[in-house]
């Protein structure tokens, strides 16, 4: 346990110590010691008040003057290793200037002329994504904390079931989804996420009581004075009354939508147009790692009542650590938007309407209900399979609890991996419809081995595990891809409102589906009874989930709506990929060039290729 706590502290410490600001500070200090003349300059007044075409970059950055709209940065990588090589008469040059490091609070948004800005991405976007992902992980770890040890929980709380506690969480989640959009709209993303993280920590404290871990190791350090200390804290923790458990679960359920409904907004606010689906996939599906953690850690610790109590306290400690980091480092938005579509919203002065008005607008927008249906189908299937993983594994002949936990964790990791890989492909191609339809087809195909037993072959554990992993990689990516698709077709909409509608539909449908699926797991249907080698049994829950996926496939095949946000990005970049300047690279270029405020850079191209990667070539 101490190893787990030390590991969590190390991860959070790394986020703080190695955050981009810390790296730049250390790098700047090193450059100064090397006698490179590096000075901060005042923010160019023309950029803020709309005079000229100067572009703002974050320190230590270049402020670039460009001859044409959305032109790429011109830069010759050979200039980094050669001294003042001569340029041809046809070469164009770009003046580079440094500017002070901008923060979201250093400039009044009303004084910025966004028409004179170019999209830029900042290294700290990864820190924001990391915290939102960790909070999502924790929220679903808490939700499914007893999924791997339902018998222990039910023995500790007679008359209450693990499935009932999960259902309580999901219904609270649905209710909170109606509030999250307006809270984020009025309070901002930073305050909303920080407040929700505190609420989640309070819920964990109610579920576990104050953490009190065995500290016998102090005996070796404090000698004779240690027993008095350890006697007070080394007694085994006890479970709280069920009323506290329920209240804490409700608080965490109320907090979770702030982590599940905001990934599209975080992606739009911080990430470039060819990074958004991947970013959303990470944040939206990182909760699956929380479910995997529930299987692995909960399965090993929740074998008895005392272990279950210690397990709940461990979750509380992790939650408190992540919340502390969130309060210190989570930010509202970058100083410069990361894409042309976000700049266009600022230029037009788009204001997000109240949630109810947004919902009415969404359902009147052609194409919105199709990604909504795909999202609901995906989240329902993954939730049901995760909830009844024990039953699914036992059908295939896997009865060892640790093996079941590993299989469940593999399923959840498959969801995250599939989201990153397939989401990255969609980022580059914007092929939302064909990718979604392929994923739904694969989902239908891979569902059947989870509940089909061929009498001639008997139980096939290997086939079952492979099908489970494949199901995670095919069903999981449907959620982030269709979250981004829904935002794309409703642009310029409130991203949080879009995802709130999808989460409400998905979690409400899942909560209603849990009791139906529980009944269906006890139904067994024989097929091909007259054919010896095809005679098989199939469970009712698999038939139910496959039917839902089939109906969704037929409905989604009719998608034919314009991608409004993609069109805005393409228009802003002159018809090509969204031209975005990477702050970290620009900062490094300036430092390597010795900090000369009027450096002349020879003609070449710095171009963005792939997801968040800058390629430099002549």
Overview of the structural elements:
Strands 1-2-8 form a three-stranded antiparallel sheet, with helices on one face. It has a three-stranded antiparallel sheet with strand order 4-6-5. It has a two-stranded parallel sheet with strand order 3-7. The protein contains 26 helices and ten strands. Strand 5 (about 525) and strand 6 (about 535-540) form a beta hairpin. The protein is mainly α. It is globular. Residues about 20-110, about 215-235 and about 595-618 have low confidence and may be disordered.
What is the secondary structure topology, with strand pairs?
Layout: H1 2-17, H2 20-33, H3 45-49, E1 61-64, E2 94-99, E3 120-121, H4 125-143, H5 150-156, H6 162-187, H7 189-208, H8 219-222, H9 226-233, H10 242-255, H11 257-260, H12 263-270, H13 276-301, H14 305-329, H15 340-347, H16 355-363, H17 369-387, H18 389-395, H19 401-429, H20 432-447, E4 452-454, H21 461-475, H22 478-490, H23 495-520, E5 524-527, E6 536-539, H24 540-556, H25 564-572, E7 581-582, H26 583-592, E8 599-601, E9 605-609, E10 613-617
Parallel strand pairs: 3-7
Antiparallel strand pairs: 1-2, 2-8, 4-6, 5-6, 9-10
Strand order within the widest beta sheet: 1-2-8
Oligomer: single chain
What is the percent of helical residues? 55-70%
The main sheet comes to: 3 strands, antiparallel
Average pLDDT level: 75
> What fraction strand?
5-15%
Number of helices: 26
Total strand segments: 10
- Termini distance? 53 Å
| Structural class by helix and strand composition | mainly alpha
Anisotropy-based shape: globular
Radius of gyration: 27 Å
* Spans where pLDDT lies below 50 across 5 or more residues: 20-108, 213-235, 596-618
């Amino acid at each position: 346990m101490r190893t787990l706590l030390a590991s969590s502290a190390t991860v959070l410490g790394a986020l703080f110590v190695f955050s981009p600001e810390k790296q730049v500070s250390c790098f700047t200090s090193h450059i100064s010691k090397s006698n490179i003349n590096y000075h901060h300059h005042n923010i160019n007044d023309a950029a803020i008040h709309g005079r000229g075409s100067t572009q703002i970059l974050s320190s230590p950055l270049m402020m670039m003057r460009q001859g044409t709209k959305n032109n790429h940065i011109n830069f010759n990588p050979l200039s980094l290793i050669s001294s003042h090589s001569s340029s041809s008469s046809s070469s164009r040059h770009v003046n580079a200037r440094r500017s002070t490091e901008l923060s979201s609070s250093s400039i009044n948004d009303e004084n910025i002329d966004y028409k004179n800005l170019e999209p830029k991405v900042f290294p700290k976007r990864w820190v924001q994504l990391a915290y939102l992902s960790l909070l999502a992980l924790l929220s679903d770890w808490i939700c499914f904390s007893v999924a791997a040890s339902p018998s222990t929980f039910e023995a500790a709380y007679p008359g209450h079931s693990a499935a009932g506690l999960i259902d309580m969480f999901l219904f609270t989640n649905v209710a909170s989804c109606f509030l999250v959009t307006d809270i984020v709209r009025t309070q901002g993303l930073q305050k909303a996420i920080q407040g929700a993280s505190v609420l989640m920590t309070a819920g964990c404290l109610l579920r576990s009581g104050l953490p009190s871990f065995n500290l016998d190791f102090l005996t070796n350090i404090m000698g004779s004075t240690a027993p008095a200390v350890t006697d007070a804290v080394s007694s085994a923790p006890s479970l709280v009354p069920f009323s506290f458990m329920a209240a804490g679960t409700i608080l965490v359920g109320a907090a979770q939508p702030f982590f599940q409904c905001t990934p599209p907004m975080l992606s739009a606010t911080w990430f470039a147009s060819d990074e958004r689906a991947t970013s959303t996939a990470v944040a939206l599906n990182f909760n699956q790692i929380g479910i995997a953690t529930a299987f692995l850690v909960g399965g090993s610790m929740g074998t008895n009542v005392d272990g279950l109590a210690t397990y709940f306290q461990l979750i509380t400690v992790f939650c408190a650590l992540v919340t502390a980091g969130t309060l210190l480092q989570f930010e509202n938005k970058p100083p410069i938007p990361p894409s042309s579509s976000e700049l266009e919203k600022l230029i037009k002065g788009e204001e997000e309407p109240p949630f109810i008005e947004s919902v009415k607008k969404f359902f009147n927008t052609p194409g919105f209900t199709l990604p909504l249906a795909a999202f609901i189908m995906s989240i329902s299937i993954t939730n049901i399979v995760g909830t009844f993983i024990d039953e699914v594994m036992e059908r295939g002949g896997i009865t060892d609890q640790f093996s079941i936990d590993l299989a469940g964790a593999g399923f959840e990791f498959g969801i995250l991996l599939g989201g990153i890989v397939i989401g990255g492909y969609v980022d580059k191609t914007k092929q939302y419809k064909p990718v979604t339809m392929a994923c739904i087809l694969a989902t239908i195909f891979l569902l059947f081995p989870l509940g089909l037993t061929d009498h001639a072959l008997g139980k096939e554990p290997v086939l079952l595990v492979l099908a489970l992993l494949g199901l995670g990689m095919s069903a999981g990516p449907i959620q982030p891809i269709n979250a981004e698709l829904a935002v794309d077709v409703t642009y310029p909409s409130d991203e949080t409102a879009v995802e709130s509608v999808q989460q409400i539909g998905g979690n409400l449908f899942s909560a209603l589906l849990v009791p139906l699926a529980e009944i269906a797991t006890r139904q067994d249907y024989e097929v091909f009874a007259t054919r010896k080698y095809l005679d098989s049994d199939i469970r009712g829950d698999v038939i139910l989930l496959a039917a839902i996926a089939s109906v969704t496939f037929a409905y989604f095949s009719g998608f034919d709506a314009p991608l409004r946000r993609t069109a805005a990005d393409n228009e802003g970049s002159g018809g090509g990929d969204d031209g975005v300047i990477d702050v970290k690279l620009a900062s490094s270029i300036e430092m390597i060039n010795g900090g000369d405020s009027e450096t002349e850079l020879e003609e070449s191209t710095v171009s963005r290729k792939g997801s968040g990667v800058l390629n430099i070539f002549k």
